[in-house]
Every structure is written in structure tokens, then in C-alpha cells.
User: What shape does this take?
Amino acid sequence: MKRVLFSLLAGLLCLTSLKAGELTLKGTFQGENLYVKNPFAPTGVGFCIYEVTVNGLTTTDEINSSAFEIDLGVYGFNIGDALSVSIRYKNDCLPKVLNAEVLNPRATFQITKLVLENTDLKWTTVKESGSLTFVVEQFRWNKWIKVGEVDGKGTPGENSYKTTVRLNSGENKFRIKQVDYRNKASYSSELVTTSTKEAVTFSTKTTDLITFSAETSYEIYDEFGGIVFKGYGKEVKIGTLNKGKYYLNYDNQMDRFTKK
Assistant: This one.
């Protein structure tokens, strides 16, 4: 009787030890499978992993080997669908997912509409494959500058977004960008429009202040190309600057001034 009780107790302890660890991966389906390295169990009998689930469903993959594939294609997922993969393993061992990055969202969006209404930039997308930030860029001073960010919804159907932008006088160009985990950037086509705003001018009547004729975005660089001020407004206090030559970007202009 004691032997039976001891055996039952040992079995319960064994079952408890099976639930020693759980590795959970969350992401989105991108059309690729996961590959797992599965070490031997510390007892020398069997392998480390004893169960794999995908969105709560136990997989039918053959996991009793030193390496195996988690087939995500059998579940009928669409690109961009949310995934949660749980890998349960025994005490004193640790499996390794060799390509967990394939669950990261990718910059796959396509723009079907990009318009400017007054100061609202609006766009509509399809084929998003996971939530990524949309970066709004404006071309001024011979470079693309980030002027806004909007969180992407990440679903492959039609999604609509908008953000407020500031127009400079004359020609304005905007584009939408996403960068994914591969550091790969995807861009929309450029939206080009012409503003009827009057061109901004500036003056330095005092040694401590730059005054613009209207509110504007601006950047000030020293003669070595280091940025010292940037912002938006009708004036810039420059009393703390050392004497010398500086470069001034404002409105759609690139100019220079001397701090005396």
C-alpha cells in the first residue's frame, strides 16, 4: 500500500515538474512558420518540450525531436492576424525559437487615397499586416522632415487616418512612411500642393532676437552644421548664441545671419 501511495505521489510530482516553464510568443501571422530547437530533457529521457499551442489550440506538429517546425499555415490565418504561441517545457532545460522575428509586423501597406483638406492630411490604406506607426514627412529645406506620427491599425482591410500639418508658402510635398523590424521603409507616393500663404521674411534688428513676419517652422545651425535651435513660432531668442555666422531655415527658405 505504501509503495502504491509512493508511486502515486511520485507521479504527481512528475506531472508538476512538467509545467516548469512556458515560453510565449505574441505577434502577427506573416505567412511563415516557426522553427524550434528542442534539447533533450535533463533526465536524458525524451525532449524538453512537451506541448505547443497556437491561440490556445494544441498543435499536431511532431515535437519529439531535437528540432521541429510549428506549422502556422494549417490554421487558416490571414496575413496580419494576431498570434499567441505557447511552448511548455520541463524543468532545467530551455528550448529556443530560431526565427521568432517572423511574427513581427511588416511595412506592407498600400495607400488608396491621400488628400489634403485645409490643414488635415488624410489617407486610406489596405493590406496592413500588423500595427506599425505611420510617419508623416514633409519636404522642406532640401530634405524630408518628420512632421507627425499616427499609430497604424494593422488590419488588412480598409483603414482611414488623418493628422494636422503646417503648410509653408509655395509648394508643399508630403509622404507617408512606415519602418518595420527589418529597418525596411515603405513609402506612399508624394502629395504635392501649392499654398497661397505669403512668403515669410525675417529680421535681426537686435542682437538677441530673430523676428519672422508670420509664424513658421524654423531651424538654426552653427557654421559646423550643428543644430542649436528648432521649433515653430514668430520669434527666436538668440541671446545665448556665441558671435559668428549661422544658417537659418524657415518657411520654405534657407538663409544665413551673423550673430554680433
User: Anything to note?
Assistant: The CA atoms of residues 62 and 217 lie 60 Å apart. The first helix runs from residue 2 to 18.
